[in-house]
Amino acid sequence: MADILVIRGSARRRGNSDSLLEAGLDELNNVEGDLTVDTITARNLNITPCRSCHGCWETGVCVVKDQMQQVYQQCLEAKHIVIGAPVYFTSVPGHLKVMIDRFQCFWVSTYRLGKPPRPRRNAMFLCVGAMENTKFFDSSSLVIKTWLSTLNVKCGVARFYPGLDAPEDIREHPDYLEDAARAAKKLILFQDFA
Ligand SMILES: Cc1cc2nc3c(=O)[nH]c(=O)nc-3n(C[C@H](O)[C@H](O)[C@H](O)COP(=O)(O)O)c2cc1C
Predict the structure, then answer these.
(1) Residue 22 is part of a domain; what is its CATH number?
(2) CA angle, 147 as apex, 163 and 170 as ends, to 5°?
(3) Residue 159 covered by a domain
(4) How far apart are CA 92 and CA 86, in angstroms?
(5) How large is the C-alpha radius of gyration of the chain?
C-alpha cells in the first residue's frame, strides 16, 4: 500500500504541474521521511472511455477489463492521493477525464446500489492554468472533487497557480513551488475528513 498516490494529469512531461508535484513530494519526504509513492500518469494509460453500457449497474464492477483494474486498485489502496493537472478548456485534460469517467462503477456502487462507502481519505489537487481567471480552476476542481467523492476521498487541499503557460514558466514562480510544498504538508496534517 502506497503512502501517496501521485496522479500526473498533464499531456506533457516536466511541465508546470509536474514541477509543482515534485515540490510537494520533496516537502512530504522532508516531513515524513521514507514515504512510499505510487504514480499514475494519465496520458500513458491504455484505457478506453466509459461506454455507459450499464454493465456495472447491478454489481458496481466495470465490465471493461483493461489497465483501469490496476488504477482502481492503486486509488483504493493509497493513503493519500495527490493530483497535478493543468486546466484544458475549463476542465481537466482529456486523458485524465477518460480515467475519471471510468469511475462511474464506483458511483453506481455507492449511490445506486447503496454499498458501504470506502474508508475516508484525503487528497490534494494542484492545478495550473495560463489565464488568471479563477473560474477555470472552479470548474476543474469541481470535476476532481466530484470524482474523488466516488472514492469517499475528500479533496482537503486544492490550489490554483495561474499565469503559467510554457513548461518553464514555473521557474519564474518560486512562490508557487513554496506554496505547493506548504500545501503538501497540510495534506498530511489535515485530519478533518468531514
Ligand atoms: C488544449 C489546451 C487547453 C487549454 N485551456 C486552458 C484554459 O481553459 N484555461 C487556462 O487558463 N489555460 C488553458 N490552457 C493552458 C494550460 O493550462 C497551461 O499551458 C499549463 O501551464 C499547462 O500545464 P503543464 O505545464 O503542467 O502541462 C490550455 C492548454 C491546452 C494545451
Answers:
(1) 3.40.50.360
(2) 20
(3) yes
(4) 7
(5) 16
Cα 88 to averaged position of ligand 1 atoms, centre (Å):
5
Q: Return the percentage of the chain with pLDDT > 90, whole number.
A: 87
Each residue's pLDDT tens digit, 158-191: 999 999 999 999 999 999 999 999 999 988 877 5
Sign of CA dihedral 33, 38, 42, 44: positive
**For the chain, which residues score pLDDT lower than 70?**
191-194
Tell which one of 14, 165, 177 to mutate to probe ligand 1, the residue whose CB is within 8 A of the most ligand atoms: 165
Domain limits for position 112? 4-131+150-189
User: Per the domain annotation, does 21 fall within a domain?
Assistant: yes
In a domain, 140, yes or no: no
Q: Residues with beta carbon inside 6 Å of ligand 1? A: 10, 12, 15-18, 86-90, 128-131, 136, 164-165, 167
Q: Does residue 67 belong to any structural domain of this protein?
A: yes
Q: Which atom of ligand 1 is nearest to the CA of 11?
A: 27
